Amino acid sequence: MNWRDLSFTALDGTLAQGPVVAILPLGAVEAHGPHLPVGADTWIAEAMAREGAERLAKGGLSAVVLPSLAYAPAPFANAHAGTLSIRPETLAALVGDIGLAVAARGVAVLALANAHFDPVQVGALRSAVERLQQSGRLRVAFPDLTRRRLAERLGEEFRSGACHAGRYESSILLACRPELVDDAARLLLLPLPVSLVEAAGRGEKTFEEAGLTLAYCGDPAAASAEEGRALIAELGAILAEEVRAEIS
Predict the structure, then answer these.
(1) What is the pLDDT of residues 164-204, one digit of tens each?
(2) DSSP labels for 123-152?
(3) Please, are residues 91 and 69 in contact by the beta-carbon 8 Å criterion?
(4) How far apart are CA 187 and CA 181, in angstroms?
(5) Angle between helices 167-176 and 225-247 (to 10 degrees)
(6) Residue 85 pairs with which residues in a beta bridge?
(7) Torsion sign over Cα 100, 106, 111, 112
(8) Which helix (H) or strand (E) holds 49?
């Protein structure tokens, strides 16, 4: 179910039936190579949220997908055309306000389906989660995919940190929004094994400093829709597991 698609009476009836999980997809508007749309992260987050909601529903938990947050801090990509970067404080405040708003409507758990891994984004989300948990108003499930135990489940490229608009993200877009992928451009891109995790550790703060002139790293030409479908299934499983752990 999508929150924005339901009437207020339908939502009221759903929330009255018992514990409800509200899933918030979190993306970004930033350059993703010459082959993917600038909204790639949002499409990935929504695919993760839908898959997670379906898995929770099959397990007897009611889950509703909230309207996505497409804007995010994106300082690494800010020099590239199309990127729209906001302050981390803005994101943290908005996620906090959304959490309190859904809690006021009777939601038991807020789950964050985040697909944007700029260190500033992740830090803002961790801060928002901590404040919401301290409020005691609702539980929060945040599967932080930058943590090693989860990253290891998403393939070698993702684990390496060289996955911006690479094989990982390109595969997911080929699976969920193939019409938005410029395949002619994708297949011409050479592998670029530059880890943004390591770049950030060295103090590099932009794609240019890290050597990502075309705003991609990894191996987009190796992507496939089949791999994308498998990745979406794994992302949904991770989200559902984190929600169940928060409830138990």
Answers:
(1) 999 999 999 999 999 999 999 999 999 999 999 899 889 99
(2) HHHHHHHHHHHHHTSSEEE---TTSHHHHG
(3) yes
(4) 11
(5) 90
(6) 72
(7) negative
(8) helix 40-58
